[in-house]
Design goal:
It is a single chain. This protein has 235 residues and is mainly alpha-helical. The chain is built from ten helices and two strands; from the N terminus they run H-H-E-E-H-H-H-H-H-H-H-H. It has a two-stranded antiparallel ribbon with strand order 1-2. Strand 1 and strand 2 form a beta hairpin. Helix 1 runs parallel beside helix 7, helix 6 packs antiparallel against helix 7 and helix 9 runs antiparallel to helix 10.
Length: 235
Amino acid sequence: MIATAVNGTAIVGGGLIGLFFRRYIKKDICDSVLKAVGIVVLLLGMLGSIKAALYIENNEIQMITRFDLLLIISLVLGTFIGEIIKIDYHLKRFGDYLERKLNKGVFSEGFIAASLIFCIGAMAIIGSIKAALGDPSIIYLKSVIDGITAMILASTLGFGVIFAAIPVLLYQGALTGLGMICGDFMPYDLVNAFSLVGYAMVAAVGLNFLIQEKIKVANMLPALILAIIIYLVFY
């Protein structure tokens, strides 16, 4: 829960900075900063996957190669399912629908746009569950990204962006609470398998900051469920 509170605080702080310096923040500066953040996210996603694949046996570090197939099958089949049911497309349509229905002014525009950006994404789901399992690093990383994004959005869309911290606290808090309830029943190896897939998706989020052809990470979300199912059935 502390990590989610930090996330909400980062949004408020970033939004206030954006409002205060809105005349001085240039787009090229924002683009460069976001690319730097993307590099960090990519590296931490890769390092997280590697960490989840390592274990100690006979005082030596070993690689969990038995989860290789789980990683491949989960991501490939999960992405296939996500593309078939068009998760990314429906999330964007839902966002557009909310904007059309609720856009009643400058406050509403900033609040809705920021809420959708901060809540709808793989990092919010993966990070909240990982935080519940004792690893809040993804949410802390998301806090940095959201803080910078809030600064940029507030400089253009106004003070409604700051209040997007409220749905973030409620949404991620609920996911973390759910993870804490389920986490007591998850074996250590299952947590590693889940983390392996989750951090691979975080790396994909980082790539999206750096490349023009965006990866639809939302369409990969079924991989998280598949990772749990495959582990329970075959391991």
